[in-house]
Structures are given as structure tokens and as C-alpha cells.
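Readers of this paper often ask what the protein records in our data store actually look like. The remainder of this section carries one protein's record, kept here as part of the documentation.

:::
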Amino acid sequence: MRHFFTGEIIKTELLEVWLEKHGIQATSEMVDPTLPDDGDLSREVRVLVPEADYDRAYQLFFAEREDEL
């Protein structure tokens, strides 16, 4: 698995669903696993994607946005 994105849990959950809709099985892990799971939606989470899917995920998520600049 390769690190793809880090952000608040509320954003990363949506990213995981979006990647899954594109056939990429992402997983997530808390940046600081020692913090209690108190339902705080602003906790930082890392999204990981399979190494083989990283380039495709990058193109889907970042490439289109670069064109808008």
C-alpha cells in the first residue's frame, strides 16, 4: 500500500468511497492512533491505495484539477 492523501476523516471517508466507485480499494489509518476515537470528524487520517493503483488514483483525483488552474 502507498500513501495517497492525508486529511480530516470526514474528507477521507468520501475519498475512499469515490476511489471505490472507480475500482480502487483504498484503506485508511489514523495519523495519531494514540488519540481516543471520540467521533471527532477533524482527526487526521492517511488514505492508502495499492501500489499498482496509485498512478490511476493520482490521475483521477489530481490531474483534472490541475487542468482547471
